[in-house]
Design brief:
alpha/beta, six-stranded mixed sheet, Rossmann fold, two-stranded parallel ribbon, 8 strands, 6 helices
């Protein structure tokens, strides 16, 4: 699991820093290199500090990277990182609340959500997949990262403890059942491509829009 660590500014500027993002960015990038398309636009929801967007856009210059977050302080941080170090393919952050549909964003062919589903109500997962099903083109992809239950069980004792803490903080939060997430994705024509084990008992889940009829 990635803990709910507080993002802190490293100095007098407005850039926030997330220890979890620093820890998991390279393992995530390795998966992204295997599955993301050769070109197109990535929409990252709940981008947080912006460190993931900066790292991935820098490493994957063939993709246009659109970060977004509903939090103004997060967007300020994302923009500060972008102006300080960002490559040309890293776009200015958008104000986007997943629950507020339709999303006010341009076209995209990849949707990313890192450490979102367990730190949000189930309605966010429903909105995420509904929008993905409506907006992504055939062959478009969804990438999810975070802790999940498998076959009704936590994959580690630390995840079980984390789940209790999440639900204590907010009864609508909690580690999701992978099978329920995949079933929700399937209802929106998104088929599973890969489920990969990641450090700290997390998973990478890669989904793709299936053609009509699933052929």
């Amino acid at each position: 699991m990635d803990t709910l660590d507080k993002m802190a500014a490293p100095g007098p500027d407005r850039r926030l820093s997330s220890p979890a993002a620093m820890r998991n960015r390279e393992p995530i990038l390795k998966v992204l290199r295997d599955w993301l398309p050769a070109q197109g636009q990535v929409l990252e929801v709940a981008s947080g500090s912006g460190e993931h967007a900066l790292h991935f856009a820098t490493a994957l210059p063939h993709l246009s990277w659109q970060p977004s977050d509903p939090s103004e302080s997060a967007r300020v941080s994302i923009e500060a990182w972008r102006l300080e170090q960002g490559p040309a393919n890293l776009l200015a952050p958008l104000a986007l609340d997943v629950l507020q549909r339709p999303w006010p964003v341009p076209e995209f062919n990849v949707l990313m959500a890192i450490n979102l589903l367990h730190i949000s109500p189930w309605a966010v997962s429903e909105a995420l997949f509904a929008e993905a099903g409506e907006r992504l083109p055939e062959g478009g992809m969804v990438y999810l990262y975070g802790p999940f239950k498998r076959d009704g069980e936590h994959t580690a004792e630390s995840n079980a403890a984390f789940d209790i803490d999440l639900r204590r903080r907010n009864p609508e939060w909690g580690i999701r059942e992978l099978e329920e997430v995949l079933a929700l994705a399937e209802r929106h024509a998104l088929g599973v491509v890969a489920v990969e084990e990641m450090p700290a008992n997390n998973l990478s889940v890669v989904l793709r829009v299936e053609p009509p009829g699933g052929t």
